[in-house]
Amino acid sequence: MTIHPSASEGYALGASIYVMGRPDYPPAALDWLRDVIGLRAGRSVLEIGAGTGKFVPVLREAGATVLALEPVAAMRDALARGFPEMSVLDGAAEAIPLPDGAVDAVVCAQAFHWFATSRALAEMRRVLKPGGMLGLIWNVRDEKVPWVAALSAITDGWESGAPRFRTGAWQRVFPAPGFAATGEQRARHTHVGRAEEVIVARTLSVSFIAALPDAARAAVERQVRQLIADTPDWQGRRRSPFPMRRGCSRFAGWIERGAYCSPNNARCALSSSSA
Predict the structure, then answer these.
(1) 168: Cβ contacts below 8 Å, ≥ 6 apart
(2) 27 Cα distance to chain centroid
(3) Which among 109, 170, 183, 208 is least surrounded, fewest beta carbons within 10 Å?
(4) For 143, which DSSP code?
């Protein structure tokens, strides 16, 4: 298994702060899981790159049986502690430790850009049941807000080629054999909390920031704290919003004709995009 150094090092060091700093997902994500991905009682879903389990509660609320796969040991340990009754697998997207046709859906939340390869997609197709669904979802910060753009400017210079959603490079693996696109949806979302959580901890949980030498990471933290001090939106408030937009890309499997993708099935219809 090959794990990008920024992920293997950064997430190993930053697993504990990841739990505090990363946002949950908007209510629209549950509708997407049910209406597009088709999750419900009696069906199973594998989350690849499950991290510490931020998306697991939403998957469970959809009613399906949830399995989680996470290659970084520190993240996997945190996931197992948080959800001791769930099946947590040690593996990677390119080598999934499940038999053929094992699950009804595969979901990647905030993770697909790390393993957007044809080999990984072939593995996902292998473990999907005929007609199974692949769903990709990200929480994306809204850089139209000036202080959010300023925060990104502080961190972006340190990325050193680490795979990121924002580059769009993950899209190059599509179209892919066995998958047909079903459209994209976007919805507004806000992470509300103390600046220490939603800005400082979130920044320090970014893989390539967590992997920095101590002095460099401390310098980033000082810049972030100065930004908070200089931002009127955060003055005199214990809790404030971190605005985001949610990008939600879905791909429906057509491994075998019929199954889930019939002409009258809304789950396979193109969905319109909205701001």
Answers:
(1) none
(2) 15
(3) 183
(4) T
